[in-house]
Model the fold of this input.
Amino acid sequence: MLDSRLRDEMVFYATTGDYSDAPRYEKFALDCKLDEKGAEIGRMVHFLLRLMSHLPEPIQILETASATGLTAAGVKAQLTYARIDNVYTSLDIEPNLLEYARARDRGDRFVQSDFERLPFANDMFDVYIMMAAEGYRPRGTFYSEVHRVLRPRGFYVMPQIGPHPYVGIEEKYAVLRAGLCIAQAEDYLIAQKSENFTLG
Done:
């Protein structure tokens, strides 16, 4: 059961959408053990990269809604340990979160932007990670943008968080409509961009 302070913080973020206080959000994220989740995501990304027949050098990773960089820290630590060269791009709409991550060297590139209008070229990333923020996608362009910026055979990784991780049917349909092939949809939603599919 959640303690009252953590529950109050969850309600605050869910109702206000105010992430401007980076130290406050970092404390909340650590209380939710998102640093441990970041390390777990790193192991998952390493596993997925081992499935690729040829690893680009360096691996290009994009994380959106990257917040204070706890996922970036976990992924980069795992890939560094595995000696996999990578460039980690962190994107968030909140500049204070990006600056907090940059000051702690959690990532390589820091971009302030909207994940439904990504400021990147087509076929640019090998791995796209999003930890959460499913509820902040009003335009309906999220998955078409995921498809656009991923390279063929690239992976989309969305860890499910909370006590009962679950990927809803509408989420699965949105992934499939965008031309991504679902590989897993339980504790993680993992999808891969087909080499042959093009959006009509």
